[in-house]
């Protein structure tokens, strides 16, 4: 079963310095039909004006993933991490028992576009953690996050994986799924067919349940980049 979440139907917030699209309920946007999916709680598609950003604020018991699409994030947190996150790199911050951080557009002239994704952990408390890494941009599937950090992946406090899919010259890819797990696809670039006449475009999402395989077929000439969440 596949349920589409169209980009234009997402919740919206515009504060002047920040323009945000919310896949799931967040902040002042509330929709009881879109509260998350399994342990995936937030996908915010954010655009931040030059030099602006999120002032220091706190988090607790949440796994927070950031992926910059354009520009660069200037990150600072109470655990002593002062970092810059450029386009294409993944950052995973485990809030643990509590952490404060700020995130700003590192540029004074260029816009910042990034995804902020929250995963509810299966372990509460503990020391905060910070991970940041650039992964291969090769075509096909690249595993980004696992529960144990195997093979150089980022490790997360939850029974889930995050997989990056890129299709350019290759036109299709098949993911071997588990009928007992839940899957969510978020499209970043390009157009994909998920079969049965289902097409997803940038900003679109798809909840996928009760399947043994997921077929991805590239549509058109544009490169495809998408995120696949493998959830309990």
Word description of this protein:
With 232 residues, this protein is an all-beta fold. It has one domain: Sandwich (Jelly Rolls). It contains no helices and 22 strands. A seven-stranded mixed sheet has the order 1-20-17-22-15-13-14, with no helix packed on it. Strand 2 and strand 3 form a beta hairpin. The relative contact order is 0.18. Keywords: Iron, Metal-binding. One of its GO terms (molecular function) is metal ion binding. This is Pirin family protein.
Structure summarized in a few sentences:
By secondary structure, the protein is an all-beta fold. The chain is built from no helices and 22 strands.
Q: Any descriptors?
A:
232 residues; mainly beta; Jelly Rolls; 7-stranded mixed beta sheet; 7-stranded antiparallel beta sheet; 0% helix
How would you summarize the topology of this molecule?
Layout: E1 2-5, E2 11-14, E3 18-22, E4 40-48, E5 53-59, E6 63-70, E7 72-77, E8 82-86, E9 89-94, E10 99-105, E11 112-119, E12 129-134, E13 140-146, E14 154-155, E15 160-167, E16 172-176, E17 182-189, E18 191-193, E19 199-200, E20 205-209, E21 213-219, E22 224-231
CATH class division:
Mainly Beta
The number of E-state strands comes to 22
Q: Count of DSSP helices?
A: 0
Question: End-to-end distance, in Å?
Answer: 16 Å
Estimate the strand proportion. Answer: over 45%
As residue ranges, the low-confidence spans are none
- Rg is 17 Å
Task: Work out the helicity level.
Answer: under 10%
The helix/strand class is mainly beta
How does the overall form come out from the CA principal axes?
Answer: globular
Elements, N to C (H/E): EEEEEEEEEEEEEEEEEEEEEE
CATH topology: Jelly Rolls
CATH-level-2 architecture: Sandwich
Q: Trace the largest sheet across and list its strands.
A: 1-20-17-22-15-13-14
How many domains make up the 3D coordinates? 1
Organism: Marinomonas primoryensis
Cofactor: Fe cation
Family: Belongs to the pirin family.
InterPro entries: Pirin, Pirin_N_dom, Quercetinase_C, RmlC-like_jellyroll, RmlC_Cupin_sf
